[in-house]
Give the backbone structure.
Amino acid sequence: SRKIGYFALLRNLRNILADAPELTDDAISMLTHPRLIQKSLVMPFRFTTALEALQTSGLPNAGRVLAALSEAVDISLANVPRFGGKTLVALDGSGSMMGRPIKTGALFAATLAKANDADVMLFSDDAKYVSINKRDSTLTVSAWLESQCASAGTNFHAIFQRATRAYDRIIILSDMQGW
């Protein structure tokens, strides 16, 4: 009946696939509907729980819904604030970030970089610029950033020592467990 809110739909995708698989097409249609995403103001990181629940579910049609979620994440970039000028996004890839923090940080970094055409830097003991393919899906960029992180210390100074351009803002994504 399409009376479910967008966020409730996200939170119940696994249940829909398990208990009402005949509604999969309707769920996919709602998930990827640009107007529903825009109206909901759901940000890209809100899709993480649904993605994780579906990836481990082994349910029929989970692959189709995962593809729809990837598309929905990219559509939701329209809900991300746009910043004027030049932006650097610096992602902490240190040991304390491993696990859930790096998954969240990498998704935020991919989201901000794609929505704002920002430069991206990874840092731990040292820092380096990385190039992302902005035509890749947000989830693909996020997974790639996560895979590039090296477990080491957290040297915030390295960001500023390695920056070779002037920026209007530098966004640091970190658990703040630094030197």
Q: What stands out?
A: The chain has a mean pLDDT of 92.
